[in-house]
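Recap from last week: sequence in, structure out.
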Amino acid sequence: MALSKLDSLYMAVISDHSKHPHHRGKLDNVEVLEMHNPTCGDVIKLSISIDEQGKIADIAFDGDGCSISTASASMMTDAVIGKTLDEAQDLANIFSSMIQGHEEKEQESLGEAALLAGVGKFPQRIKCATLSWNALKKAIERHQEQK
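Predicted structure tokens:
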């Protein structure tokens, strides 16, 4: 019974992020990275503002996606804002490992995004959950190449 209540809580949080995503939109005067999930058609447009100290000063996403994709992007933006690029990269790696079913000690560092661990039980949804995190990795990689 307790597991059922916990699952309901997780679903409520995911549903809330999907219906009322955080940091949705586009930042001005920064490059926008667009990625697609060819399996289901989800699209994310990610824009990141990085300050002089190499921290994510602001982040926003837009696009079209399913509830898992949107919730994951919302949770990802919450988790990485204010983090250094290295810290954000580490969080993206932790998320990728977690979503593939690996138990991660650092999982709690993901904040509410850790609630998406159960998505790993549905292989067809893994790409939905990881789309925004993969876009983050790509954006960090591009920024580091431009330095």
